[in-house]
Amino acid sequence: MTMSVTQQVITIAMVVLGTMLTRFLPFILFPAGKTTPDYIRYLGRVLPTAVLGLLVIYCLKDVTFLSGTYGIPEMVGVASVVLIHFWKKNMLLSIASGTVVYMVMIQVVF
Amino acid sequence: MTDRNHITAALRSAFPLTIPIMAGFIFLGIAYGIYMNSLGFHPIYPILMSLVIYSGSMEFLAATLLLATFNPLYALVLTIMVNARHIFYGISMLEKYKGMGKKKFYLIYGLSDEAFSINSTADIPRHIDRGWFMFFVTMLNHGYWVVGSIIGAYFGAFIPFNTEGLEFVLTALFVVILMDNWMKEKNHRSAGIGLCCSVICLVIFGGDLFIIPTMFAILAVLTILRKPHEKVEVSTV
């Protein structure tokens, strides 16, 4: 390590500061005591589902479809989750099943 | 006594929803603890960093920052870029986190991907206190992450079974929550916009850079669609 402990603490503090900035910023700009602008309230209504879509793609962003496993374990895993959830409507069951399917494929099949 | 039962009920209601996150976070926390060990850090580092940074991808990056030349401004800017998507979480939770009292600060502090996905979509039973429910979702998630890091930092070498692929549990969680919302909503536009903008930007910009362009794209499309959306909503009411 090239850093002194003080420098390490400062670096970690910067990471904390950056993280908290992204999390607290909306609440600082639009405090609870004031009326939130209509546009922001509109975003508050429509963003959650859009962001969930972003999160799913974010989780799959490192999948390579043109080499290696060709993304097959991921696609089969996601398909398992979707099918079982559609069929059984049980959150824990579909998540556990999809994960087990994925783990088996990644550890045994490929 | 009534107040205590109140809080206990919220905890019991929140816990089941966090079980997938427990599996994912303890595993990832362990991986993080092991990783920090392999870089030569004392166990106290991953534990404290899990406690105060509480941003998985950024904690892994912070490890490489600590091994590089001292550059605090770079650390700050990198963190903001990596965690930019959290701004959208905050905007989404503005209304939901109102009226929470002091708990609000911890709720904002712990607004991770997972806390956001559950707190923004959960159907909280009427008799359950919303504030305590969301507080426990946030706190349980945070706790799993720290516990995982502790296990990894001290006992990582002794895990008896192959855990490769377990991180998929978090992907599965987001898929399930997205599906629930899809089936609940009449209008699937937001989900479609999120998915399409993400895929397009991923293809164009690559995995390391696509988040911020995606955020701008989602904002632009939702803004353009706002008026028709609003009219539909008004006429429905």
Overview of the structural elements:
Chain A: It comes from Gracilibacillus salinarum. Chain A: The chain crosses the membrane at residues 12-30, 42-58, 64-84, 91-109. Chain A: Keywords: Membrane, Transmembrane, Transmembrane helix. Chain A: InterPro entries: Brnchd-chn_aa_trnsp_AzlD (IPR008407). The complex is a heterodimer of chains A (110) and B (237). In chain A, 75% of the residues lie in helices and 0% in strands. Chain A is mainly alpha-helical and 110 residues long. The model of chain A has no long low-confidence stretch (mean pLDDT 88). Chain B is mainly α and 237 residues long. The radius of gyration of chain B is 20 Å and the shape is globular. In chain B, 75% of the residues lie in helices and 0% in strands. At the A-B interface, α1, α2, α3 and α4 of A face α1, α2, α3, α4 and α5 of B.
The structure class of chain A reads mainly alpha
Distance between the termini of chain A: 37 Å
Quick one: which chains have the greatest interface?
Answer: A-B, 69 and 99 residues
Structural class of chain B: mainly alpha
